Amino acid sequence: MNNKTLIITGLVIFLIIVLFPFWYMRGKAAPAPQPVLTPMAKAAKACVRSTEYMKSEHMQLLDVWRDSVVREGNRIYVNPQGKEFNMSLSNTCLDCHSNKAEFCDRCHDYASVRPYCWSCHIENPKEKT
Amino acid sequence: MLELAIKGGKKYYGWMTFLMVIIGIGFLLYLKQLDFGLGITGLSRDVSWGFYIANFTFLVGVAAGGVMVVLPYYLHDYKAFGKVTILGEFLAIASVIMCVTFILVDLGQPMRVLNVFLYPTPTSVLFWDTVVLNGYLFLNIIIGWNVLEAERNGVHYQKWLKPLIYISIPWAVSIHTVTAYLYCGLPGRGFWMTAILAPRFLSSAFAAGPALLILCCLIIRRVSSFDPGREQIQSLAKIVAYAICVNVFFFLCEVFVAFYSQIPEHMDHLKYLFVGLHGHGAYVPWMWTSMILMLIGIILTVNPITRENEGVLAVACVVIFLGTWIDKGLGMIAGGFTPSPLHEINEYIPSLPEIGIALGVWAMGFLVMTALFKIAVSVKEEIRA
Amino acid sequence: MDSSRRRILQLLGVSALALTTKPVFNAFAKEEVAAEAEAVIKAGAKSLKAKQWAMVIDTRKFESEADLEPLVEACHKIHNVPRLQNKRHEIKWIWGTHYHNAFPGKAAQFLAESVEKRPFLVLCNHCENPPCVRACPTKATFKRESDGIVFMDFHRCIGCRFCMAACPFGARSFNYRDPRPFIAETNKEFPTRMKGVVEKCNFCAERLALGQLPACVEASKGALAFGDLYNPASQVRELIKTNYTIRRKQTLGTEPSVYYIV
């Protein structure tokens, strides 16, 4: 085998591997994620901020919340509509959105995002009995 | 020049494969540590730094020791060292890589290590340690590589390297001073709260680093056609002799200060290490061994008859390397934490997985060092041909 | 060309640099002003405020270790502090110990019998000049300007344990493994921690924000007093004025905020 044959063979194998997601899923696309609201969330009608804002910025908001609570000692968030919230992932957000598997995980799994928030800010399934 | 590292004989590949096996085992153990947590080590609430940090501290010294060939050559025009400065610089690179890796394996949340750069904290000595260690690494890579490449091409190294070389000399002193400052500024740790800690670190560094370098030179002479030179090895040996004498002298100063003043806070840690305290004495045999080893090292390197016999000198270097490793590594760390601030004793013994991971890091350092030395020696052999 | 490889590398370098200009500009670009009004962040109405929170422990009110148990339980329960069997991995925010361990510098061969038998409560002293805060390379441990509490941000902690080496009081614990299996009853209102971070007493900042005193103070039935060290009218100042108090390792100059009436 001379160099040309080796190179072309290598290139073909490379392309097959790199384009795997495209030719393997040809024609099909994974369905868009459908997070489910709990009855409590539906009743509240509005989240801390608008749905669009929360979709794109909820992590940034949580960072702001964390720095305010931990570093400044301020725990009340007054949203632009004037409603007050306690800045807490465990007690505010997850109070309404208590169905992590049907809500948070839906989009996170789709986007292959694995936040480690759940190591601390959710019920303890390993609780010693 | 990198291609010189992958061209070697059977022995070379055999050695590298052996190292890679140890690295592989260490890596698998580290994955277990990532999964379980640092609980697989022997660390405890009272002794929160142990084998990893001990090796890190010792290796910062070895890295700084490389300056002992650079300084005489570049500052004092000691031409003989011209042959071996590259070995000192490459030893420094391998050592600093080991240091940084030991820190990483010691972290509880290593994926967050970039926080040190995202949230720089000038009041923290650890922040400065990160800065100076990385700086020293880059300095040695840039200097070593360019000087060697110039040598290979038969030209003088570029002019802009000169200021970098001059900076690297006080920088080498700084890396070990800053590492000492990690310890000697902590108010609750009486064993470390001594002004002589930084000088002691430097003296043991200048003993251990050149000792390892001598051993490498003797091995290089055996496995290649490049001879670092008898005069060079003897000069290094004289440096080691002085450094180990100073190191032991500094230690004896510490002993005097603690025991003549009879202040319990200062005596307790030395008592724990050398005679045991409240029934705990796991370190006693190790510390006395270290003292005896360093004493033998002094005798063998100070006495010209034994020093000039290169076989005996090799033994002396091994003995000094081991002695300083026990003293600065194990003894200093465990001794500082025991007894605890509440005067309780929870003895620290490294666990097997911990030792396995540490060996993996050492093997990785030796892999880098072997590859770099192979490159340097191959270039020297090329020039000779 | 005789140095074509060098030319290619130079070209690649310049192109890489050029590709970074847009992201760099974006980073510096001003954010679009949002159409809606700004959100506001503030403290709760009931939240307690102080310049420097301090505690006075009247050790005379405790007779045995059993007296300290309710206080330790109260703290460890609401903060999800795990109970680990392996002593090396233990985590404790507050605990009882002997005089000789709490005050090693004051150890004496002959001591008042009551002091010899009495348990001493030890916890983080929330020093005014804390060496742990100086040591932390990421400011994961910091002293809050609002109330002087030495607080921990578990999200930022890299687990280097430098703060544990720096603390002269042994007040800090490290999570050597996942704590969750060792928590008997999780308090859902307070997060648990994950393996690899350091933790310690936080002067119950989350309770202070709701107008409540720290759990140990509440459980102590008056043995512990809590208040603002810099408010001359506070209970802690009153107790310090009328009783002889000592602090742990005073000579180190860390200025602990926990005072002991012996």
CATH-level-2 architecture of chain C: 2-Layer Sandwich
Structural class of chain A: mainly alpha
Q: How many DSSP helices of chain C?
A: 10
Order of helices and strands of chain C: HHEEHEHHEHEEHEEHHEHEE
What's the number of structural domains of chain C?
1
| Main beta-sheet annotation of chain C | 4 strands, mixed
**Strand order, sheet with most strands of chain C:** 9-2-11-10
The shape of chain A, in one word, is elongated
Give the spatial strand order of the biggest sheet of chain A.
Answer: 1-2
Mean pLDDT of chain C, as a whole number?
92
- Derived from helix and strand composition plus strand pairing, the structural class of chain C reads alpha+beta
Termini separation of chain C (Å)? 87 Å
- Our count of helices of chain A gives 6
DSSP, total strands of chain C: 11
Task: Give the end-to-end Cα distance of chain A, rounded to a whole number of Å.
Answer: 67 Å
Shape of chain C: elongated
CATH class descriptor of chain C: Alpha Beta
Total strand count of chain A, please? 2
| Oligomeric grouping of the chains | heterotrimer
